[in-house]
Amino acid sequence: MDADEIRRAVTRMFHEILERNHGADGLLLAGIRTRGVPLAERLAEQIRQAENVSIPVGRLDINLYRDDLSERPRMRIRPTTMPVDVAGRTVVLVDDVLYTGRTVRAAMDAISDLGRPLRIQAAALVDRGHRELPIRADFVGKNIPTRQMELVRVRFNETDGIDDVCILERGTA
Amino acid sequence: MVATVSNEPEVFQGNAVPVPGLRRHVLDLDDFTAEEIAATLDNAAAMRAVLERDVKKVPALRGRVIMTLFYEASTRTRISFEEAGKILSADVINMTASASSIEKGESLLNTGLTLQAMGVDVIVVRHPHAGAPHFLARNLSNVAVINAGDGAHAHPTQGLLDLYTAREHLGGLSGRKVVIVGDVLHSRVARSAVWGFAKAGAQVILSGPPTLMPDPLTPGGWGAAGNNGVANPLANVSVESDLDAAIEGADLVMALRLQSERQQRGFFPSLREYIRRWQVNDARMARANHDALLMHPGPMNEGIEVSSGVAHGERSLIEEQVTNGVAIRMALLYQLAGAVAVEN
């Protein structure tokens, strides 16, 4: 996907989010660090331009909730920040890629420790399949069928200086 | 759209920025790089945010067993480790020497081997003899060891929490003037703090009775430049016995606990003289920078090494140090538990 395709996908996602939730009332976008954060901010910015409402955007670090500490050790942890209380809100978890579903599971645990949201939904720019948990995304920018050998690399201007999505071969070093 | 890359897969997985260095144990700060210290302090900042929540619990270390093994009395360090472990959902078992088989004469090695056989993941040890944690680390193959204070040698978790607290208030530590005053000679707190602050680029001045100052570490003294092209990490550390001179323009003053037995052993003539010359009080703090900060590792002898007014004044960070201690220990436990899990 190039920058234009990403932009169009984000546009469709924000429309779907508003449609499903009957507007922007009570919404909270929670970007999962690292690249869920710029995606959440883009969604909020587009909603602000289209509807003239400002949706709070939180940043979620889920490393302390992962179930694979032994496989991904010694990670840098960064603070989780929520501009508003999650209690009673519709929290939309936002991540760049939906893959095994384990990140979303960890993110749901992380959100639950902050309070009791009204409901939790999940949004991802790319759904690449290969779920290992009974989790699905409510809002998907693009479904990209992949093999498990492959990696999906998402880059955003905010974090990487360029907007694109590529499929890469794993371990071809 | 398909391409090949030569990088490690982790490069593209946003959350996976590892802490530099391959660390199994935390024995002292002398083998920490400045980068590893900075990464640990960053993790502590995230842990500090967990401490401020209503629900102070995360599942990161579920199923891990942490043992605190204390051969010396302690309040804040032991409780701080226990709280840190419990907030991370580890099981924490406390063992004190006075209520265990150590009373029956079991050696440190055999105690360590016993705990290892029980499946303990991390041993947090405090011992009156310098090097005891290093000895355990050398002889146990499956356990991470954290030094919670060994003799007059090192207290690295205290050093890190001091650095964290200082960094939170001063921003960068490079070029900052840090005065450590008191019984530096017998202080493991000072020794670890010196390593930490020196590596962070601060200018460290040690002050106190000349009899309680350490000998110069290198032939040319503390301030000697390195040789063989290797910079002396302690090049910015100096000794100035006169506290009034040392404290001039300081950004941070760290007062150390004075043990009264030192006077009986003749290190200084009288407590009154010590108070007159080396107590951190309002008049002395006035010579430091106008927003200079005070730290003390505790437990405090109020009215001896530090006046009550300064200890409880607005520049005092003493209580914040305690809170930050929990965050630092959470960060270290998290980092070590991950490393142990990989090796096993």
Description:
- The complex is a heterodimer of chains A (173) and B (344).
- In chain A, 29% of the residues lie in helices and 26% in strands.
- Chain A is built from four helices and seven strands; from the N terminus they run αβαββαβββαβ.
- Chain A has helices at residues 3-20, 36-51, 102-114, 157-160, and strands at 27-32, 57-60, 90-98, 119-127, 139-143, 150-155, 164-169.
- In chain A, helix 1 (3-20) packs across helix 2.
- Chain B contains twelve helices and ten strands.
- Chain B has two domains: 21-154 and 324-343, Aspartate/ornithine carbamoyltransferase (Rossmann fold), CATH 3.40.50.1370; 156-318, Rossmann fold (3-Layer(aba) Sandwich), CATH 3.40.50.
- In chain B, the strands form two sheets. A five-stranded parallel beta sheet of chain B has the order 8-7-6-9-10, covered by helices on one side.
- With 344 residues, chain B is α/β, with parallel strands linked by helices.
- In chain B, helix 1 (34-51) packs across helix 5 and helix 5 (156-170) crosses helix 6 (188-199).
- Chain B has helices at residues 34-51, 76-87, 108-117, 132-139, 156-170, 188-199, 243-246, 261-264, 271-278, 282-285, 308-311, 318-343; strands at 2-4, 65-70, 91-96, 122-127, 144-150, 177-181, 203-207, 237-239, 252-255, 293-295.
- At the A-B interface, helix 3, strand 6 and strand 7 of A face strand 1, helix 1 and helix 12 of B.
- Strand 7 of chain A pairs parallel with strand 1 (2-4) of chain B, so a sheet runs across the interface.
Name of the CATH superfamily of the largest domain in chain B? Aspartate/ornithine carbamoyltransferase
Mean of the pLDDT scores of chain B? 87
Per CATH, the class of chain A reads Alpha Beta
Strand share of the residues of chain A?
A: 25-35%
So what's the overall shape of chain A?
globular
Predict the CATH topology of chain A: Rossmann fold
Overall form of chain B:
globular
Ranges of chain A where pLDDT stays below 50 over 5 or more residues in a row are none
